[in-house]
Amino acid sequence: MSFIKGIELCRRFHIEIVEPVMTDSYPFLSYSSALIGPGSEVLGYDTEMSTDHDWVPRVYLFLNQPDIGYSELIQSTLQERAPERFYGFPVDIGRSVITTVPRFIESYLAVSKIEELEPVDWLTFPSQSLLEITRGEVYRDDNGQLSTLRKRFAYYPHDIWLYLMASSWQRIGQEEHLMHRSGLIGDELGSAIIASRLVRDIINLCFLMERQYAPYPKWFGTAFKRLKCSDQILPYLWTAQTAVTWREREYALNNAYKHLSHMHNGLKITEKIPDEVSYFFDRPFKVMSGGDIACLIANQIVDTDIRQLSKKRLIGNIDQITDNTDFRNMNKWSEGEGVYARKALKKLFKPGL
C-alpha cells in the first residue's frame, strides 16, 4: 500500500464512490462535497505516519436544509456501495459527515447565523478553526453555499486584522525588555523562557502581516516556514530559541525586529516606524518598543466597537488569551454549552464592560 496524500485520496473517494451513489440513487438532490474540518490532511501536512489513526477516505457532504432528512438513507446507501478498502486504506463511512452548511458552522464556530456576526465575534474564533474551514478542498458545490462560506471566512475583516497586529506588538512590547533583565541578573533559564514567548509572538505577527491564519502548535513551525518572510527571519528566531546567553538572544531578536519593521512599513498602514532598535531607558540593552507600534496601528481602526476595545484593552483574540486546547475547542462541547461559552467569552471583548 503506497501512501496517498489525504486531499487526493478523498478526491478519488468523492469521484469514485460518493458521486456515483448520489447520481444513481439521489439525482434529485443538490449537494456539496469537500474535505474540510479537522485532520492534518486538510492542511496538507499529512505523511505516512498520519495514517495510524483517524485517517480514512472521507468527505463532508452538505445538503440543503429541506433535504437533510435523506441523510440516513444516503449514509446507508454509501455503506452498501463502498468497498471495505479503498486504494488499500480502510473505509469507515461513519467518518463522512452529512450535514448542512448552517449546522456545520454552528458546530464549528458556535454561531447560529453568520449573517448576524459582529466584528467582535471574530475574536472568539480560534485561527485553527478558521483554517479548517478555509483549507482542504471542495470537490463539488451545486448551489455555491460552501464556496460562499469559505469566501466569507477567507480572512479577518480589516479592523480585526489591525487590532490583532496591534495586540501582537503590545505583547512584544510588554516582554521584550524582560528577557534582557532576567539575563542580566544571571537568570538564563528565565531569560530563555521569555525569549521563547517572544519568538512565538513574532511568528504570530508574521502570519498576521502576510494575512495567513496560524495553525495550532503541531504545525505552527511547519506553516511558518512557508511564509515569504521565513527565510530571512527564521535563522534569527532559531538562534534566539537555542542561545545559551541573553546577549546572544538580544542580538538575534533585535535582528528579527528589524525585519519586522521592514515588513510593517511595507504594509503602509501607519507612518513609518524606525528600522533600528533603541535603548530601553538608561539600561544596557535594546528593544523595539512594541507598545508604541501597537498604538500607531490601533489608531487606524475605524469600527467603533473595535476602536473602543483597542483603547481599553489590547488583549488580542482567543488564541492570544489562552493556549488551553479544551477551551479553544469549545465548539466541541455538548450541545448548547459551546454557544453559551462563546457568548460569555464575547463579553470580554465588549468595550463597554
UniProtKB/TrEMBL annotation:
Domain of life: Bacteria
Domain called DUF4037: residue spans: 122-220
Pfam families reported for this sequence: DUF4037 (PF13228)
Protein name: DUF4037 domain-containing protein
